[in-house]
UniProtKB/TrEMBL annotation:
Belongs to the UppP family. Its main location: membrane. It is an enzyme of class 3 (hydrolase). It is a multi-pass membrane protein. Pfam families: BacA. Bacitracin is thought to be involved in the inhibition of peptidoglycan synthesis by sequestering undecaprenyl diphosphate, thereby reducing the pool of lipid carrier available. It is found in: Cell membrane. It comes from Paracoccus albicereus. The lineage of its organism: Bacteria, Pseudomonadati, Pseudomonadota, Alphaproteobacteria, Rhodobacterales. This is Undecaprenyl-diphosphatase.
Amino acid sequence: MMQQDTIVAALLGVLEGLTEFVPVSSTGHVLLAGRFLGFNSPGNVFEVVIQLGAILAVIMLYAAKLWQVFSTARTNPTSRHLIIAVLLAFLPAAVIGVLAHGFIKTVLFETPMLIAVMLILGGFVLLYVDRNAPTPRFHRIEAISLPVALTIGFIQCLAMIPGVSRSGATIVGGLLLGADKRTAAEFSFFLSMPTMFGAFAFDLYKNRAILDASASLNIVVGFVCTFLTALVVVRWVLGYVSRHGYALFAWWRIIVGSVALLALLMTA
């Protein structure tokens, strides 16, 4: 059973890496897949903690830019602006996530029907915004204004409902507020670093008492698979959305959500 759980953990890690940085809800996919595969995660810690692999993949791929931004922050107003914008966008999720943590983990994460419905609804929203977004006025993440960054941060909080998608919420928010498709995705990547690391650290602290050796092994396996898969996906996604937009991901959400909803209704 332990070996079977470890194989499933690896599969879920790959799924997390494939879906974290595209607007399809990685948490929704992993929670639904785990349910149908019979994977048991105490306190749903696995689903949150393996996201650290995705964070590290982004940090590695953006290491040069991160170094340039932080090393010049004292003398370069553009670098300081970007750091402040990302921190402002992170703030709403930090506050609301701490206050609503128990409800999110014990109610929302345990409601697969809600996840399936949010996947479908989010798909239609993404499809509409991809086709009808206003004319872009931000073509670099450094150009995003502080009020816009804070607004994107509040929109990101919708992703505390599994199935909405953190990247999906921030990308839709960015597009509606004037970012072009590539810039919306790239700002979502940068915002993911403090947001996901904060969620990882807080969840690990809150659930430290219920982790055991087998759970730790599954987390390590899932983390490695997430990291390796996310390295490939992050490199690919910016180029893809610049050329083709987000319609593919919108239809994927609708199809997966519909199949999951049908399966849940048939097994209820």
